[in-house]
Specification:
Radius of gyration: 31 Å
Distance between the termini: 78 Å
Number of strands: 16
Shape: elongated
Number of domains: 3
Bound molecules: adenosine-5'-diphosphate, magnesium ion, zinc ion
Helix content: 40-55%
Largest sheet: 9 strands, mixed
Length: 492
Amino acid sequence: MEIEPVIGLEVHAELNTRSKMFCACPVVDATTAEPNTAVCPVCAAMPGALPVVNKEAVAKGIKVALALGCAINTVSIFARKNYFYPDLPKGYQISQYELPLAEHGTLTIRTSAGERQIRVRRVHLEEDTGKLTHVHGENGAAYSLVDLNRAGVPLLEIVSEPDMRSVEEAKAYAVALRQVLRYLGVNSGDMEKGVIRFEANVSVRWKGSEALNTRTEIKNLNSFRALEQAVMQEIARQSELLRRGEPVVQQTMGWDDARGVTVPQRSKEEAHDYRYFPEPDLPPLEVSPRWVEALRAELPELPQARFRRFQEAYGLTAYAAEVLTAEQAVADYFEEAVEAAAPEVSPPTVANWITGELFGLLNQAGADIGAAKVSPRALADLLRRIAGGEINNNTGKSVLAEMFAGGKGAAEIIAARGLRQVSDEAAIQGWVEEVLAAHPGELETYLKGKEGVANFLFGQVMRLARGQANPQVVRQVLMKNLQERRRSLDEG
Ligand code: ADP
Ligand code: MG
Ligand code: ZN
């Protein structure tokens, strides 16, 4: 019998607000800022310090919830989640528990099997913890350094229903969610900086069963690769147990990224009792429906809508639409280029040049589209020159490479390098005659009936013209010459 995985994801996303969730400290880059430079009595948990809710964080959280189609709770409650760990100076984390900011959303994912809706159970606000660095010093000394810059940074937790049925779906969900966060401009999506972290809940069952079996939870997944590998391993481990008829023990596991393995952390018996209770220092969070509607009006076109529109409005393949909408900056670039290139150049042609040539150049340079020296208008100008026959496709590619490297426009490069395509029949006739005279053997083979040799001769003419002849005209002139010679052979 076949085994089916059941996966639910909890995603923690930092919100890129200016100040922290409950104090006025700035949100700084955790990977570059000097440790403990963005800390105050509130986020350092000095006795008597009181939290104040950051309105910008609430606004950004609501935007995410709206983008996921959630219902926003007009009243939600902050709660204390109690546990002791050195990265948590208060001894509790302010989170939301019974009444979260928002509930009941969906996220559309795309896999090789097509599109599917994954339900989002809840979206709630909380605060990030500090960061510990474990040091193994000389003489076996081991200690930990605490950096509180990250303590109190706004964190949004997005919890899915256990709706995913494969590693591929889990990854697609994570990718789609990151894309929504980036489109909304609430999170950089910079996974290396830890601004998005995943926790995967995994169970398995016999296919056909509707049971939700005992699950394990894997924490500390900071990359798509870690998510994929950890979930894959856990599915394999649990499947083996299911086949042997042995029980899965409910437990929390950690992902050891260096070794690429999951390690058990604690079982259900040792599970935390967080002793949640409403945060006495904060009033219920009230959100007016008018504010929610104002925030809804600020939502940009979301990835899924843009993906659809790119196919319908521009006639793109699903593949091209997917690649071009993966990032907003790329999608904007494409649309600007399409507008500037119309009507001579079709949107699919623009798409091909961007996903093929331009991406190739960006890849080689290790650069983002935002840093490209070729503006959308400059690309459009190049493509119009190709469409108009001024240069051919291949020359166009080398012109683009030069535009990319030096930031010059197509016109300047074409003029400076004398690249203008030759369509003049008399000039081309001259090259054809030269090639035929230089290759008597091949010509004879052709005349004897080997049609394929024409391609060789065509290539020779293009070479002689240093690639600058109009290929259509070359083919026409060449064929005319060859046919004439055949005729005179037949007659003679
Ligand atoms: P907790 O808050 O203790 O982590 P929840 O019941 O809120 O537990 O679930 C957390 C996550 O676990 C959710 O994403 C949910 O979809 C997922 N989940 C719950 N039950 C299962 C299961 N049997 N198999 C896989 N995932 C599950
Ligand atoms: Mg959990
Ligand atoms: Zn502070």
